[in-house]
Amino acid sequence: MRRTLQPAYALMALAAALACATARAERGPDTPDDSPSGTSPSEEIVMPAAPELAGPTAQAIVPAQATWVEPPNLPGLRAAWLIGTETDPGPYALRLRLAQGGRIGVHVHPDDRITTVLSGTLYVGFGTIFDETRVQPVPAGAVYLAPADQPHYVWARDGDVEYQESGFAPTATNFDVR
Length: 178
What we know:
Elements: H1 7-27, E1 77-83, E2 90-98, E3 103-107, E4 113-119, E5 121-126, E6 136-139, E7 143-146, E8 152-155, E9 161-169
Antiparallel strand pairs: 1-2, 2-9, 3-8, 4-7, 4-9, 5-6, 5-8
């Protein structure tokens, strides 16, 4: 499947290329890379700032300081939005904690979701029926992709699991999968 760069990433790449080109032009064609023209090795070199991007910005948030919620229809689950929201367009990071034995039934999301398991082992299955015999273990440190509109389910079979999902909003979780 062919992927395209998201607009924010394209702007960041353009800004980096522009910064490199500007620095190279200021040095001149015959100046070695390690000693820009007009400076001595002890002088500080100031790179041009990247342009400010419109839209959401990343926020450094310590998970312990985040607002955690416990959805009443999903026992054993705690979740906190660390970056972005479900409805505001742009990147998001959703931290989740699923207690041992906790399950999140078959559901879909309208966007691709990248999930990184931070601790424990998350068992993931794809399909419209929660089938314990078809789950795959995703251990701490591993990553998996849940494609948009692909029915899937998760289970903290062996112990507590902490994981983080990221993608581009708007997003949602729909349990009405047929």
